[in-house]
Amino acid sequence: xRAVEIVSPGSLALVQDLGRPGYAHLGVPPSGALDVAALRxxxxxxxxxxxxxxxxxxxxxxxxxxxxxxxxxxxxxxVAVTVDGRETGSHTPIPLRPGQKxxxxxxxxxxxxxxxxxxxxxxxxVLGSRSTDVLSGLGxxxxxxxxxxxxxxxxxxxxxxxxxxxxxxxxxxTVPVVLGPRDDWFADPASTLNTQWxxxxxxxxxxxxxxGPPLRRVSTSExxxxxxxxxAIQVPPNGLPLVxxxxxxxTGGYPVIAVVRRASxxxxxxxxxxxxxxxxxxx
Length: 283
Prior knowledge:
The protein is mainly β. It has helices spanning 36-46, 189-193, 265-269; strands at 3-9, 13-16, 54-58, 62-66, 70-75, 81-83, 86-87, 94-96, 101-104, 112-117, 148-150, 172-179, 197-199, 207-211, 226-227, 232-234, 242-244, 251-252, 256-260, 276-282. Strands 12-19-16-17-14-13-20 form a seven-stranded mixed beta barrel. It has a six-stranded antiparallel sheet with strand order 7-6-9-4-1-11, with no helix packed on it. A hairpin with a 2-residue loop joins β6 and β7. The chain is elongated and about 65 Å long. The termini are far apart.
């Protein structure tokens, strides 16, 4: 069987593809890779379709053993990658022979690296996706040592055309947002969002929690639960914003002051605790 074996999962290793959008009416989050661009790049490097499933790791530490000859790639922030102890580098196709072990180190910046393998991770799909959803529990369980992860058939040729030097993840982010739908519930929303926020350690795949000067509400109305999108900035009673990521609930009972533009979600997903964030309102 085409497969890789998990020797060590590191702190957290999850199977992720591009998610299962379109099921919000059933209460199912979209899920999927938080840094979509990194997963797409990794799949191109190993000859997969861009929507193939890979493995998302948090702060590295993942080691896998190839059961068959295959090609792997590691994308996301710059990180040390070794094969049987030899340095190979990230963001490039890596040929593996049966029995060889690939290890992802700890990135100096950023949070999430992506391991893609030729053929793609071929665990059974749930609602059309192989992604693990940590909020609802849909999809495969977090990967554990000793798990053999199946691979699909090879469909393309690995390519070095996309090899790039991954830029370091910045310690400060300026994130474009679109105000609304409840920005009129807050005093001067554009200016107050543009203050300096700090990513907290309570952040996860559900959302990025921020600390800073609490946002002041001018409306004391009660809000019935309403649908929320990935990237929605929800403001709970303490006034400290929460940016929803891919495993967010599909409804929320607190006002959404703005929504992060989709192109910036990957940068937020790579933001470690302590990262400084400002939001810039745009039309």
